[in-house]
Please model this.
Amino acid sequence: MMHAGCGGASRATLPAPHRPLVRTRDDASRAPPPLATLPLLEVPEVHRTTLATGLDVQVVPRTELPLVAIVVASRAFHIHDPGSPRGAASLTARVMERELGRMALAARGRELAAPDVTAGGDGLLIAMQVPSTEVVPALTMLSAVLRAEDCFAADVELARVAHRELVARAQTVGRLASLGALVSLYGPEDPRSAPSYGSALHVERLQRAHCIAQRRRGLLPASTTIAIAGDITPEEAFAHVQGTLGAWARTGAAVPPAPPPTFPQSERNLLLVPVRSEEGSLMIVERGPGPDEPGFPAFAVLTRMLGGMFAARMNIEVRERRGWAYGVSAELGVAADHSTVRVECTVRGDRLLDTLQVFEHELWRLREPARIEADELATAVSMERATLRTQLEARTSVAYALARAFLHGRTLADHARLDAALASLRSDDVARAAASFRLGAAPVVMIGPRELAPALARARPGRFGLILPP
Model:
């Protein structure tokens, strides 16, 4: 017996389609889908109190699930503290994370997750989420670590091992390029230009005494908030914090924040990290206004447009017309007193200069309000406003938002003001933000073949330099 499709005389055939498999696009399908009009952002009600010791407590009830998110934030514990050696804050944060993790594992019969501990330029964050029945044990665990005056030598040494691995992993070409961009943007003397964990020499010089001093200097109740969001009433939260952390009364001199950046003009702002590879990378960084400055909403939307429309332009110029592979990303960094945009693109090494020209042409277009299309502006604004809403949806994101606002000296009401400013943004505002982008002066770092050096030197005479790997 012969089967259809196996060489027999009869073959199985598909029925004729009732309509073409490829439809001809009509006018309606070519029109962009209407963007949803978002209502103005409504921030949740925040219940707030301050203990006698100066400890700030913020609570947002959320009853969807029997879970509670707890985030501790300290302004005094930051990586740019001029009174601490480089890397001490990062190393001490790892020590504290080890202590909290050990306590969570030792609490048999309890559902306590090991908290995440991070130290950054604005301060320290300790975050955890627990069932609503475990709030008191979680706060008791946090109290023990925050009030501790000492630390074990074994924890310091194990944290040092992890730091050694971090330093070793950072010795990559990409990390060299990133540090080169930061030095060009902030200047070599600014603490933001150096890695928070320090060098291998910094890590080896740090001792247990430095971690103890960092802990006593940076963990002060008057510089700390506890943000709680979840299935708990404000009265319960205030009582639990008072009962577990009310005796935390450490005092000390106020730790100054990092000095405001000066952004000195760099002598060399077109840098090349030479590699033996056909693939290259382009990184562009630029300063921006702080979150309280009028130009910040437009700068945030400009970042969205650079990430989206520059990628679209690269798709047309690079992939469709010339057949190059590429990848584009744009990231906005926000500090208390300024912001930064970081645009990265991966492309063939011999096309890096062409890619920079495509980016500059796109930025020139965005400087003209008439050339900013209504749908691209509406899309970028909607994405930025949607991001604000995601920060206030889940209990963990709400607690993080409260903690970060505290570190920056802000409140959740600033989210609503930013959303209102975004809703009224016009193409003229984005064009002004694009005009503030310093074409030819913003730091550009490339990773590519050394043969590019002569062309790059001609592109920016006197501003080109090499970053040589160690």
Remarks:
- The chain has a mean pLDDT of 87.
